[in-house]
Design goal:
Blueprint lengths: L6 E3 L4 E2 L9 E5 L2 E5 L7 E5 L8 E3 L4 E7 L9 E7 L5 E6 L4 E10 L4 E9 L7 E9 L5 E5 L6 E6 L4 E6 L2 E6 L4 E5 L9 E3 L5 E5 L3 E5 L5 E5 L3 E5 L5 E5 L4 E6 L5 E7 L14 E2 L5 E12 L9 E12 L4 E6 L2 E6 L1
Parallel strand pairs: 2-29
Antiparallel strand pairs: 1-25, 3-4, 3-30, 4-5, 6-7, 7-8, 8-9, 10-11, 11-12, 12-13, 14-15, 15-16, 16-17, 18-19, 19-20, 20-21, 22-23, 23-24, 24-25, 26-27, 27-28, 28-29
Length: about 350
């Protein structure tokens, strides 16, 4: 198993045994919320959160995380809520109860300046048939009061948010849209552009990267876009804005130097004959820009047993941390859909 999951590193980087790096991580694994060191060796269980894919919102200064929680197994009373977890005391409380016809999906982030959470809330508005409406929700982290902002019709898959500029990038059937936090449509990249697999807004300049069908650079002032790479997904600007991270598949990690145009593949699984994108996850960078975390998956062909006639593909999942100061990376068992650095 270890040889199947050996990392091939770029020059100057090396794979090491998993270790703590001085900063804890909160992560979601198979419907549970956990916190622990970056070696993932002794995680502390915080609670069940359910199967809906929604990011972890975090206030690193206060040591508080917010997560969307819902029913996770049969026989348990149905519920839909935003819960707050104190990472010091390990206690939790319900911040907001949503209706059983409401879900927080694909987006939950902490807006420190407004003492609020921003979420995408989907609501089934009809009893006789399914009719989903999407709203941008502003949730007060003290009172739990929620204010819903109507969104344009085609804005239903959030890709990136910039609270400093009050911008959110959404993807829809009619293109990729730049929307203000007030719900106003600002700009659109029509169909034929990026496929909407992740995005990132530059920390200073009015530029965005959008992934899927390559990496696209979108000038948010001029409205123009350029595909700067034919393959790529889940781009993420570095905190200094000098470059960005992205992946080509579920089993690799790349870095692009925006100033020079040079790129390098930082890591990948050695000898992986079945690269795919179905299990790719966004890259999470620590606030100081010194470390990142991402889930990696390798596909493996398994010989058929007596009853099967054709081989099947198994999936080997690992959580990966890259220490950018020491140029080291390590992996640990598990598959985290979402990470947050404390």
């Amino acid at each position: 198993m270890s040889t199947l999951l050996k990392l091939q590193m770029a020059e100057g980087f090396r794979e090491t045994a998993s270790r703590p790096c001085g900063r804890k991580i909160v992560w979601e694994d198979n419907g549970t919320l956990n916190v622990g060191d970056s070696d993932f060796a002794q995680p502390e269980f915080l609670g069940h959160i359910g199967g809906v894919d929604c990011p972890i919102a975090l206030d690193a200064k206060r040591g508080v995380a917010w997560v969307y929680c819902c029913q996770y197994r049969l026989g348990v009373k149905d519920y839909s809520e935003i819960r707050e977890f104190d990472l010091t005391t390990r206690r939790s409380r319900r911040l907001l109860r949503l209706g059983l016809h409401q879900w927080a999906i694909w987006m939950l982030t902490h807006w420190a300046e407004a003492n609020s959470l921003l979420a995408l809330v989907a609501t089934d508005t009809r009893a006789a048939m399914v009719h989903i409406r999407h709203h941008l929700a502003l949730i007060d982290t003290r009172s739990g009061q929620m204010h819903l902002v109507a969104l344009p019709r085609d804005a239903f898959v959030p890709l990136a948010i910039c609270t400093r500029r009050r911008w959110v990038i959404f993807h829809g059937a009619e293109g990729t849209h730049l929307i203000s936090i007030q719900g106003r449509h600002l700009k659109t990249l029509p169909p034929g552009g990026p496929a909407g697999r992740g995005a990132s807004i530059h920390p200073v300049r009015p530029l965005a990267l959008v992934g899927g069908d390559g990496i696209w650079l979108w000038d948010l002032e001029k409205g123009t876009s350029t595909r700067i790479r034919d393959r790529g997904q889940f781009p993420h600007w570095s905190p200094d804005g000098r470059g960005f991270w992205f992946s080509e598949s579920s089993s690799d990690l790349f870095y692009w130097n925006y100033e020079t145009g040079a790129e390098k593949r930082v890591l990948r699984f050695v000898g992986n004959p079945y690269p795919e994108i179905n299990y790719s996850r966004p890259i999470t960078i620590s606030p100081d820009g010194k470390r990142l975390a991402v889930s990696l998956t390798r596909m493996l062909k398994v010989d058929p047993d007596v009853l099967e006639k054709t081989p099947t593909l198994a999936r080997l999942h690992r959580m990966c941390v890259v220490d950018l100061e020491k140029c080291e990376a390590w992996i640990a068992p598990g598959y985290a859909r979402n990470f947050a650095w404390v």
